Amino acid sequence: DSVITVQLTEEDKVEDDVVFYLVFTGSTVQHCTSTRKINPGSLETISPGHDCCETVKVALCASREGHPVLVVAEESFQFVQDEAYDAAQFLATCAGNQQALNFTRFLDRSRPPAADVDFLDEKVALAFRHLKLPAEWNVLGADQSLTENIPRETLMHFAVRLGLLRLTWFLLQQPGGRGALSIHNNEGATPVSLALERGYQKLHQLLTEEEAREPDSWSTLSHTVHSGDYSVKHHRGLDVYLLTAEA
User: Fold this and answer.
1) Cβ–Cβ under 8 Å, residues 180 and 156
2) What is the DSSP pairing of strand 240-246 with strand 29-34?
3) Residues 187, 146 share a domain
4) 160, 191 Cβ separation under 8 angstroms
């Protein structure tokens, strides 16, 4: 969901009825994004979430009714894996792993500043949204035979303990997310009681209200619809669309 700006040359600044879009061609996946005109010489769009780290070819295309599609320019674009993606992958594999989840509790003792927590929350939650989680993935882990009466640490405890509002919202939408709210850890705390104990009012409201809305900070992000080998994203902030297709 990073913003990409495209600067047009003088000869490319054309009439208003021309529609520009970008095509990203990777080794196994292709993305097509619409653009928004900021002014006659600048366009904006959203970077697609890619499936691997690689350099892809990007083509700027122009479309006009009754005319063939024109490739205006081509450039290369590099996708990299950052620390937030590594953290999301690590946490996804931690679901149900008590040794790993207890290890993450050391973060609680360092208590990073609020600005750092907000940055961590946004980046890790975005990375989590991009992960291709297995169909059987569950917030509570793979062992579904465990009952609510067995005390254990969960991913939801981790997110709430650090006050990660966006990550908590994401986990609530996943299988096992709501079930995790009533599970006590070894200290007898549930995610709900942790939020209350630490004074996270917005987080407590999110966990206890049946019709709680998604955090305001998410309202401008992309909404994705999957269908087979295709997915369509609508980024509400810029009002641009992104089509991803597996080659």
Assistant:
1) yes
2) antiparallel
3) yes
4) yes
- Based on the domain organization, do 24 and 69 belong to the same domain? yes
Question: What is the distance between the alpha carbons of residues 144 and 138, in angstroms, rounded to a whole number?
Answer: 9
Interatomic CA distance for residues 141 and 153, integer angstroms:
11
The packing angle between helices 165-172 and 114-130, to 10°, is 30
Helix (H, G, I), strand (E, B) or coil at 167: helix
Residue 244 pLDDT greater than 80, yes or no: yes
Alpha-carbon distances of 45 from 19, 20, 36, 134, rounded to whole Å = 13, 10, 6, 29
Residue pair 98/146 in contact by the 8 Å Cβ criterion: no
32 pLDDT more than 80:
yes
Model confidence over 66-105: pLDDT tens digits? 889 999 999 999 998 888 888 899 999 989 888 888 877 7
pLDDT tens readout for residues 8-31: 988 776 667 889 999 999 999 999
DSSP conformation letters of 171-224: HHTSTTTTGGGG---TTS--HHHHHHHTT-HHHHHHHH-TTPPPPGGGTTSEEE
Same domain, 21 and 102: no
Same domain, 119 and 186: yes
